Amino acid sequence: MSTEFHWSRKDLLGIAELEPEEITAVLDAAESFQEVSARAIKKVPTLRGQTVVNLFFEASTRTRSSFEIAQKRLSADGLNFSVSGSSLTKGESLVDTALTLQAMAPDLIVIRHAYPGAPQMLARRLAAGVINAGDGAHEHPTQALLDALTIRERKGRLDGLKVAIIGDIEHCRVVRSNIHLLTKMGSEVVVAGPRTMMPAAIAKLGVTVSYDLDEAIADADVIMMLRIQLERQSKMLFPSTREYFRLFGLTRARLQAAKDDVIIMHPGPMNRGVEIASDVADGSDSVILEQVSNGVAIRMAVLYLLAGVRQAVA
Amino acid sequence: MSLLIKGGRLVDPTQELDGELDLLIEEGVVARIGPDLEPGEVEATGGEVRDATGLVVTPGWIDMHIHLREPGEEYKETVATGTAAAAAGGFTAVACMANTVPVNDNRSVTEHILGEAERAGYARVHPIGAVSKGQQGEELAEIAEMVSAGVVAVSDDGLPVANSALMRRALEYAQHFDIPVIQHAQDLELSAGGVMHEGEWSTRLGLPGWPGAAEDIVVARDVLLTEDSGGRYHVAHLSTARALDLVRQAKARGLRVTCEVTPHHLLLTDRLVADSGFSPDVKMNPPLRSEDDREALIAGLIDGTVDAIASDHAPHHRDEKDVEFSLAPFGIIGLETNLALCYDRLVRPGLITLSRLVELFSTGPARLLGVPGGSLAPGSVADVTLFDPEAKITVAAESFRSKSRNTPFEGWTLRGQPVGTIVGGRPVEFPS
């Protein structure tokens, strides 16, 4: 672990505001926690007596499970507070929900919300540390961190790499955090996808924009395929999954353009045959399941670092 | 009853006046303007002499686009609180939009608003009637009925007149009354889901964008319909460079096309959504635009394309705004900050002259709406605003007369403070 650096943020709201040393600190801490998950008894007492609330305003199986496991392995007391279908439908505001939780004196709150800025709103009002587990299409910092940990393990570094991010650049919640993180750490990011899913002025985020899969992945060290959200996709964005796959689906044949040691990532859940062919998803270049394992370590690291700030303040 | 205002700097673009001039009001109208008018006669006849040394004296300001929320949403604002805010902000008159509950699409709602305004007595109120019944965008409202009750323009503001055929008929029919059709220019499909301007900042924040083209397309269509119908068309809260260009071109072709802009679109841009940490008090419709758009609007003030500055004063209750940015209602209030913002940020830096500001605040709106005021030429109605150009203020929403607090300008330190209004020769007293 880096020796001089001290984590001082109460909250983890996004990657945009982080310094490279902070990113490295989280990754280093996560590396030291990976060993816990490999033990027979997967539990350390680090966060014993700490209460963590998982406040999920949107359904999320993967991210929530990952946070829950991280909490259990650190001996924190986790509470799941699923709001979809409870408070909101009763007309309770986010602020009131937050104040209600505050009264129960949690140490950390993990929030997933459909709308950008909701974690910021909570963080401003609550003494508890707030961890953004995805706010709309804005940020999903722990996803970007777990992706970075996976890349660093495989490539030994985060600088000087060419990373291609392919798919629904506009709506996908993991894109912006990944762009911020990778560009801050010195890698080149190319985003590619249909023009209908490319947000205005994305180049201002310091990326190269392409509308061609083959061009984007040429000589890539890392390819991140994004999930096409079939359930919420308007028919105006692309006419059919068949056409999508034809233009932007990653196949073994197209993968030849990338570097020989390219790694393939996907935040999951995958639509096989839509954005990625099964033989690529299951192939030797795929690190998709390593991402999931690293997710637990990253979330342990974030919980640990933020809890440390809480204790220092107390 | 007479009133002599002495020693102020009188600015009236309609007479090309800007200098130390006294103003004599008799029987509710402007009697005389001149240097060093004698107070003796006024005092002898029981009149009042008011010392305006250090103050600017102008034709009364008219905010041609506000929401009074009454009837129906009195928890946000009432005619009384909204007009008190107007008076405190230096306005002698306001024009209130029709999107009340029920909609002001008939004379009984119009008469209710006017009755409440009369009772309050803080400012003239000019109701704007709906273009369409219930603002449904389908059938024309009974415009003649509303005009006979006091409506001065028609607009479905809050919503666009989306249907081209209805817009054509509105532009034709409104000519019977020589009133403008005021458009809230927004293509609802293009802007669907949008909560801020589509651009770099919507991309960074992951918020759905409301592209400028959604405004431009409607203005472009309406200019063509205005050309064919010969009607009078006014763009409410114009916010994009291209829509402004369309207005500029239409004017050059001699069409009766006009527009207003708001202080917030003149002074703020979309990046404030990020800088404010997603504050719902920077969410309005149309949204804060790009810096290029903002600069184009300033150019439009300077070159005369813009006809009026209006606040789009849109009160919302604190509880409604204290939610996620995406869920918050659109709109901010402006009556009590308009002058200081425009004087401090437009006149003091020399972007526009004080005389031009008076045109935008008073003469322009009066001419557009065909209402009294806008000039201090002898014989004009004595609607007058006085303000102190040197007074330093710090915007504090808690001190507003408006019922609502939704301003993005909280804490701004500015110069320029209204110190009084005179409506029909009578100094207005309003709650402190």
Question: Which features does this protein show?
Answer:
A: about 325 residues, alpha/beta, Rossmann fold, five-stranded parallel β-sheet, four-stranded parallel β-sheet, about 40% helix, globular, B: about 425 residues, eight-stranded parallel β-sheet, 20 strands
The assigned structural class of chain A equals alpha/beta
When the domains of chain A are counted, the total is: 2
Low-confidence stretches of chain B: none
Main-sheet strand order of chain A equals 7-6-5-8-9
DSSP summary: helix tally of chain A: 11
CATH superfamily of the largest domain in chain A: Aspartate/ornithine carbamoyltransferase
Using only CA atoms, what is the Rg of chain A?
A: 19 Å
- Total strand segments of chain B: 20
The number of helical runs of chain B is 14
Q: Level of helix content of chain A?
A: 25-40%
> Which pair of protein chains has the largest interface, and what are the residue counts?
A-B, 26 and 20 residues
The dominant shape of chain B is globular
Q: Portion of residues in helices of chain B?
A: 25-40%
The fold-level CATH name of the largest domain in chain A is: Rossmann fold
Brief overview:
By secondary structure, chain A is of the alpha/beta class. Chain A has helices at 20-37, 62-73, 94-102, 118-125, 141-155, 175-184, 213-217, 241-248, 252-255, 278-281, 288-313, and strands at 51-56, 77-82, 108-113, 129-135, 162-166, 188-192, 208-210, 222-225, 263-265. Chain A folds into two domains: 20-138 and 293-313, Aspartate/ornithine carbamoyltransferase (Rossmann fold, 3-Layer(aba) Sandwich); 141-289, 3-Layer(aba) Sandwich (Rossmann fold), CATH 3.40.50.
